[in-house]
Amino acid sequence: MSKKLYEIGDMPPLGEVPEQMHAWLIRAERFGQPTAAFQKEVVTTPSIADDEVLVYVMAAGINYNNVWAGMGVPVNVIGARNKAGETEDFHIGGSDASGIVYAVGKDVTNVKVGDEVVMHCGIYDRSCPWVKKGGDPMYSPSFKIWGYETNWGSFAQFTKVQAQQCMPKPKHMNWEEAAAYTLVAATAWRMLHGWESSSVKKGDVALIWGGAGGLGSMAIQIAKAVGATSVAIVSGEDKFDYCTKLGAKGCINRNDFDHWGMLPHWKDSAGYAKWLKGVRGFGAKIWEVLGEKRAPNIVFEHPGETTIPTSIFVCETGGMVVVCAGTTGYNATVDLRYLWMRQKRLQGSHFANTVQCNEMNELALSGQLDPCMSRAFTYEELPIAHQLMADNKHPHGNMSVLVGAAEFGLGASGKPAVAMVHPTLPKGDVHTSPAPYPMSTPLPGIAEGEPITIADDGSKVRDLMHRGIISCAPDETVGAVAKIMVGNEIHAVVVMDAQGAAVGVVSQTDMVLARQGRTPDQARSLRASEVMTPGCATCDADMLLSDAVSLMTGRRMHRLVVTEKGQPVGVISMTDVVRKIIGD
Fold first, then answer.
1. Which of 364, 385, 402 is the last residue of a domain?
2. What integer pLDDT is reported at residue 19 of this predicted model?
3. Which SMART domains match (predicted)?
4. Angle between helices 354-366 and 182-193 in degrees, nearest 10
5. How far apart are CA 402 and CA 59, in angstroms?
6. pLDDT tens for residues 540-570?
7. Are residues 222 and 142 in the same domain?
8. How many CA atoms lie within 13 A of 99 on its CB side?
9. 172 and 258 share one domain
10. What is the C-alpha separation between 98 and 176, in angstroms, rounded?
11. How many domains does the structure of the chain reveal?
12. Is 357 part of a structural domain of the chain?
């Protein structure tokens, strides 16, 4: 061996595995924001098992799971592995990669030293009884996500993977492009093709949430490849051209509608009527895009809490809503009548198995799946890429970072069998991320039936609100905020920045949760910004009181911050509404 350690970009001779390697490590003592959590270190190059492969990483994909790993939430991945018996006190993340095989275990037959590969992130124990009898590995208790639930991910010069994770690298892609697509594309593939009779097929209509995002951009292309028609939901008209070039029939701007969120309480007839009017309008917009009155046979879901009620409503009878995430929240509400009476399917989906990953990769190999890479970073910028994602300031599409590749644009050695357009979003584009009717009444559909009337006495929020805001600054300690609460006999304090904008709320619940696992002194010394619930549920002073009530019940909360001209000026609570109803 010529060297014990090679510098980043200095590729060892093929098949030579140095004793040590450079890597970006996360350690428990620095859990927090990505720019602090990720630190460069030198570690021993991992050894491989009989069914494993050691890959020299040329580029690695950036995914949200290692923002979570760096923060230590919702799981301390290092602690979880230590509890299971693994000894490393660090985490090397990275769940997407392209690279070159440098070593193989004795049982490996699908790849050899020198092969250019991409890796999918699903691993499992080949000796698991469920797997050995032919069960889907995704249902095995041993299944894990490589580079998040396991160590030795792709943010290092070498990564160790199971041989079944390795797939041929598309020759027409450079290293950074090839590292960007596998996780999201495989997830989208299983969602659309993994559910037997409900899987997408030629002639179907697919409604794709987040069409310009990493998952959505893959779903549009997968639907197109099978001959389905997709309608993309996006956050602005600036993304229409991008999605249509990928293959969408057309797009809908979700900001043209305001009925999002959990269903209003079943006793809130005014709130449900308003929601129903909004969701019918959304369904009619789908018809407009399609040019015919057809409902989606399959709805590709991942926002979750704010969109599930709408997705289930507009889905075709006998169709499927398939969901892989809850980016807006996990407490989604369902009007169960639509599931049983119209026999719709609400299907959960998580990543993909080995067969499905390779089926997806065939599309990429043939040139029918563009990686939709929005930005590639240098090795030194790896923490910055994750910080952008944590701050929701990352560009739409998929991102990657160079590791072993010496510069951008290397690695392409051929042309795709199918020529494709490589759409791009406008420069600077950033993220902006009801009571059931009585059973004796026919279920309402999208088409307008009887006119909907909403009973309301015209009261405004300003008629009942309490003026004045009890607030704190983001850098005030939890101990100081607690004194504000106790002194004012209140349950929550609004967090306001230096410009007077409400940026969050610290509630008594937030404080109780912050105390868990800490001493009282540690909890008291935390900053409000560290424990607050980000964002602030608001309503305008001129909003109808009935609308404010629907907003509170829809979000399962008891109070709203009241604004005038966008500035917080007071509070309205359910207690105020009760006083109006029953009198003082």
1. 402
2. 97
3. CBS, PKS_ER
4. 110
5. 4
6. 999 999 999 988 887 777 888 899 988 888 9
7. no
8. 40
9. no
10. 7
11. 3
12. no
